[in-house]
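Task: complex structure prediction.
Instruction: return structure tokens for all chains below.
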Amino acid sequence: MAPKVLMVAEKPSIAHSIATALSAGQMSSRRGSTEVHEFEAMFQGFKAHYKVTSVIGHVFSVDFPAAYQDWTATDPLTLFQAPVLKTESNPKAHIRKHLSQEARGCGHLVLWLDCDREGENICFEVIDCTGFHTTDDRKIYRARFSSVTEKDIKKAMNNLVAPNRDEALAVDARQEIDLKVGVAFTRFQTSYFQGKYGNLDSSVISYGPCQTPTLGFCVQRYLQINTFKPEKFWAVHPYIIHNGYELKLEWERIRLFDPDVAEMFRVLIVDDGLVEVTGISEKQETKVRPSGLNTVNLLKVASSSLGFGPQLAMQLAERLYTQGFISYPRTESTAYPSSFDYRGALEVLKNNSVFGSHVQTLLANGYVKPRSGTDVGDHPPITPMRSASEDMLGYDAWRVYQYVCQHFLGTLSPDCKYIRTKIDFSVAGESFYCSGQNVTVKGFTSLMPWLAVSEKSLPRLSKGEKIELTKVELYEGNTAPPDYLSESELISLMEKNGIGTDASIPVHINNISERNYVQVQAGRRLIPTALGVSLIRGYQCIDPDLCLPDIRSFIEKQITLVSKGQADYSLVVRHVLAQFQQKFSYFVKKIENMDSLFEAQFSPLSDSGRMLSKCGKCLRYMKYISSLPSRLFCGTCEEVYYVPQKGTIKLYKEITCPLDNFELLIFSMAGPDGKSFPLCPYCYNNPPFEGIDTLFGASKAGSTGKLGKGAGMPCFMCPHPTCRHSLIAQGVCACPECSGTLVLDPVSAPKWRLYCNMCNCLVFLPEGAHRITTTRERCVECESTILEVDFNKKTTPLKDGATLYTGCILCDDLLHSMIEMKHGKSFFKRTGGRGRGRGRGRGHSSRGRGGRKLQDPKMSFRDF
DNA sequence: GCAAGGTC
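Output:
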């Protein structure tokens, strides 16, 4: 039998390209966790059966073991010595299983992961999943390729090497350092400040070696603006008229900061009254065409010219890529590979309605060879792959595509050439000049008109000519501070300082904005919030290193030693962590220095209530004001949302309402029999469905107009058909006491119970079960919702220690024997005294599932 | 609830 070769790439598209190149397109593909392409071809002189598949980025990511996950029980300091675990990044993708299955029976493993440090690390993740290292006769190879072209793929195949463990270990080191440093500082800061202030406007006060310096850049500019002292300055501008054109002359001294001296010059010049042309020079200037487009440059243009943030720009670019309109959008390279088929790439756009004529000119007149640029060896620059029109892509994607085309054609177009003319003047011994420019070759600027050189013609003058002044202006101005940092400037700074990568730069910028450290304002400029400024100024007080970009380069430098085999992996990790641990201890000791800045900006918890849950409209935290009437206040929207009174209210696992995106809350009534139920603050105040006439806590008569305080629609009255928390999902059966429905109390473990959404009826379910949930099934006999019970292993009533059981609480003998009914405290005053009782008022409008017409459920609490 | 790095 032919030997089997397994080859693994970093993403499905590359696996496909490799298989296509090596099989000349003669492969069969099948679906799996990721696609597998199979074909027969030669391998090291033998006929072999190839299987080419891929992972989807990293297979694993690092985290702390469960024992360290509890914020309150873990001192963040101990995290520096804590063990770390690698867990599957995306367990649902089943990549580990996929690789181990595909590796079975394969004698050779060829690793086609991207040729960078992260790729090298993924190589070892793949090796780990395939179990290749266990048997000696199975061989592991690394393919080193500089582009995903047939030529490079075949070349790599003929020059297989071994994977580089040092490079992979460098990434392991970074992962552990980033995790421990980030999480330790984040937990400490968050707990400290959230325990003191009520209006921090962020659920987490995070710290990270990339996000914090990113914020640092924004705050640095903010402080520069805030501490800027404008200065008055003066400049003298003589004017002349030549052939009817007025010409303003610029001063060689530019400006002076002393008004008396400036005025003296003005008087001298006015007194003289004549300017002499002292020289005329012409110089040929070049504005060079762009080199190939990489991710960072695309993001900068998207932010500064298209108005798209990096996150959106990448989403649009990725969509264009998956639809085949542009090449892979995550690349650092600005140099095209030597084998790049420019003509072919141009042909693609030949008939494009917008660029076609330009392209035809380039094809007919010969295009210019692009500038060299830098080749990082990852992916070629971003180029168009298919012709498209705005109709095909939609406006936003079209604008990104349009830019990719303009830039690509720009790289193949001539440089822009222009002649710069400078005329020098002298008057009263002072030197002035004016300059103009005349474009001789538009070149690439005809495609990218916003970069065009503006034309400015100067009058024809000759040296020695003397001209009368028409007026002399003394301009008075103020020096001005720079503007807030633009997103595009920030991206440049991050790139220059090695903060983040092309793929993660958008994430870091998004992070500092989502945590409310900065706000993106007009023109995509980043304005730090009080929180962002307090943090950075705090670090500057305590330990400026913590927010300087060097913190990243320090880590990079250390792990580079590992990658080059110049330092031992575990020693480096220990050494770097020891330094950060010292910084951490010092930070904790000096936290009051930062706190004094917070004190000036934020109010103590007691004053302001506490941040509880996110508003679905602005996604900011709303404040919970516990004083009566208790309510939520969204400071951004200036909206108040009342919540049920006299009980405790908590965030419900950060679950959001599918209707309005507000985070759900769980309300627990006081007392031992206090029921708990989820509610959406928005729906509670603005019931979304018609026919919810009976609001919880409101008397029927009073519910027509405005809502009374504390009256509203909790999730157990909501007829939403698919939400997990609605009446439809959580309702079990009709209440035996009234026309209401018995609903599962979602947080009643371990004393699981049902309560009525109308009256005070309570039904206790089997005690001590690990979990009781409603299912989508209905009992065939009585139409009650079937419950799934996961019994405790020790107390399970099931045979052989089985724990899982499903059944109807009314018709299933086992479950029915285990339930018990009890009346609780009244939910609310009912005008009609006791409930109407079973058998009447059935068919309550909100009872039902999936739009099915409700019938009287034939259920019976026969033994109650 | 936490970092940063892949890719979707």
